[in-house]
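Worked example 2:
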Amino acid sequence: MATRGNRRATVFARVASGTATLEPDPARPRGWTVAVDGVPQSFVDLDDPTFLAFEYVRRCAAVVRLCAPPGVPLEVLHLGGGGLTLPRWIAATRPGSAQTVVELDPLLLAVVAKHLPWPEEIRTEVGDARLFVDAAPAAGADVIVADVFQGAAMPASVAATAFARSAARVLRPGGVLIMNLTDVPPLSYSRIQAATLRAAFGDVALVAPPGILRGRKAGNVVLAATATPGGLPVSRLAAATMRDPEPARVWHGPELNAFLGGAKARLDGIS
């Protein structure tokens, strides 16, 4: 496949979770889309790790960017690897950050490492996200990013109050949990997940495009949570996400209360 003088072929590989493909991007000489069973997981530009193609990744990045002064190194735990797009972005924008990526699928990690190598300062672990968090030391992370999927759904083991409380224990004072999930109208799953985080955290916000919030389409919803009530930079996050090429809204406080509509936290544990 010719792309502006570069001849790159799509990479196919059997992984534990299905068939992974690395598809070259014709517009970016070293850009690749990572997909599993046809579902896009990540976009990686080896020349420019600050380029974030997927809108939900930009929303997660906005939370990270606003949770500490610019350039300050962070201790970050990533649950779910994919192409390691966000860890690469953090390594580029916050040099010296200590990052650990936990990925259940060792074959996926291997194919990404071979074709899309990441900076050596990013540490990877093969393991179960929930079990890793349960065993992690208290107050050891500034940020936890939960981007864990089985197919198109978040596994139950990271979707209940037990996981939320375990994540809260691992975060340092002022630390932030960022959770990416997918949902369909009428967003029942997002309501339950936001209520679940509220059972363990003092402040929770939801970030999503207007079309999703109005129940017109399916897509990604990002949740952010911190222990201290009023601890999230809601106004700055709202301004940042509205400036995005694909704008999103932030629901927090009374708006989030109305959205929840009495939804209850998910109380089940590991399954």
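The first strand starts at residue 2 and ends at 3. The mean pLDDT is 94.
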